[in-house]
Design brief:
CATH architecture: 3-Layer(aba) Sandwich
Bound molecules: 1,3,4-trihydroxy-5-OXO-cyclohexanecarboxylic acid
Number of domains: 1
Number of helices: 5
Shape: globular
Distance between the termini: 32 Å
CATH class: Alpha Beta
Low-confidence stretches: 153-163
CATH superfamily: Dehydroquinase, class II
Length: 163
């Protein structure tokens, strides 16, 4: 039996408080809801989801390393580390698959410190500002990038290497 290719959903600092913290910004859905949305959409498209949440930068990096050669994609909402963590940038750069940067809110429309994403340059694309819906959109984006690369749903090829 073929096993479904795995999408790693990575949730960074404070995402565990989704649904509780600043619901006017981040919505009323919990992280459990977001994982369920992601998993449901992924199953519809033939993917499995592994979810990992941590408030600690190093633990997120360890999880990205563990996804190398295992997951076909990472959907990363690494919270405020998006704006600061060159270490997560480097870990994602070493991941040989699709990377989708994800945000519930639209950081570009918020405070200036959120306007910079240090992981944007190592991501295939960005989904932001659509709240809980973004989790399903991120799975669609993963599927679209894999299709575009001609790698089907199993193959994960390095970003920028599609020649
Ligand atoms: C966020 C946006 C970040 O700026 C913020 O620090 C978060 C959540 C989002 O999902 O909108 O923690 O990543």
């Amino acid at each position: 039996m073929m096993t479904a290719p795995v999408i790693l959903l990575l949730s960074g600092p404070n995402l565990n408080l989704s649904g509780v913290r600043e619901p006017e910004v981040y919505g009323h859905e919990t992280l459990t809801d977001h994982v369920a949305t992601t998993t449901r959409r992924a199953a519809e498209l033939g993917f499995a989801v592994a979810h990992y949440q941590s408030n600690h930068e190093g633990e997120l990096i360890d999880r990205i390393h563990a996804a190398r050669g295992v997951a076909c994609a990472i959907v990363a909402n690494v919270g405020a580390l998006t704006h600061t963590s060159w270490a997560i940038h480097d870990a994602l750069a070493a991941f040989d698959g699709v990377v989708v940067e994800l945000h519930l809110s639209n950081p570009a429309a918020r405070e200036p410190f959120r306007h910079t994403s240090v992981i944007a340059g190592v991501s295939d694309g960005l989904i932001a500002g659509f709240g809980a819906t973004g989790y399903a959109l991120a799975v669609d984006a993963v599927a679209a990038v894999l299709e575009r690369r001609g790698a089907g749903r199993r193959g994960a090829r390095r970003r920028g290497n599609d020649a």
